[in-house]
Task: inverse folding
């Protein structure tokens, strides 16, 4: 539910950092099978609510697309235990963010020829800081930054030793606040009228 609240009409974009962190906590010691199940539940909940507008076209359309997109989070949950390395919190955070971003990118091709609705990067449109990263890296760069920050916070909470915790929290702050240094692109061409 938290992930769906990050999108319009609520647009509580900070929840896009919290929701994946909760999933990552659940996946910390999961097997691939348990990760698949946890990811599927997370995906059904998040996409089920995010895509609820599809019920205007029928329950079958909504349920089919919800299950297909939830499968992407189930895939993430199944693959994350294979990527994690004990005692390497920074690599774990990097691996989790790269895996999440890759799977979001793959959703651009499947199902139905591509459906990226509900990507973490799209949740940051109302965030005046993180969205600036899209100028350089597009929506998937923003997705990576959000997933990386969430994973770093989770790794910091479970890390042994203060230096590791501080490094993880510092990197999370850079991923979250660093894009403020990126200027927005400015329109430089002449103004045109468009009619539809």
Result:
């Amino acid at each position: 539910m938290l992930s769906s609240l990050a999108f319009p009409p609520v647009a509580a974009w900070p929840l896009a950092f919290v929701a994946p962190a909760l999933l990552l906590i659940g996946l910390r010691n999961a097997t691939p099978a348990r990760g698949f199940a946890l990811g599927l539940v997370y995906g059904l909940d998040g996409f089920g609510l995010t895509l609820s507008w599809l019920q205007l076209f029928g329950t079958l359309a909504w349920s089919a697309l919800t299950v297909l997109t939830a499968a992407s989070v189930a895939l993430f949950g199944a693959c994350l235990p294979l990527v994690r390395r004990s005692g390497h919190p920074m690599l774990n955070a990097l691996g989790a963010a790269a895996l999440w971003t890759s799977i979001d990118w793959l959703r651009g091709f499947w199902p139905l020829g591509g459906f990226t609705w509900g990507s973490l990067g799209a949740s940051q449109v109302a965030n005046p800081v993180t969205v600036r990263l899209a100028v350089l890296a597009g929506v998937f760069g923003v997705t990576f930054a959000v997933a990386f920050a969430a994973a770093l916070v989770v790794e910091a909470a479970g890390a042994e030793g203060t230096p590791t915790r501080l490094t993880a929290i510092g990197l999370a702050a850079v991923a979250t606040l660093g894009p403020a240094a990126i200027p927005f692109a400015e329109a430089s061409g002449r103004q045109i009228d468009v009619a539809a």
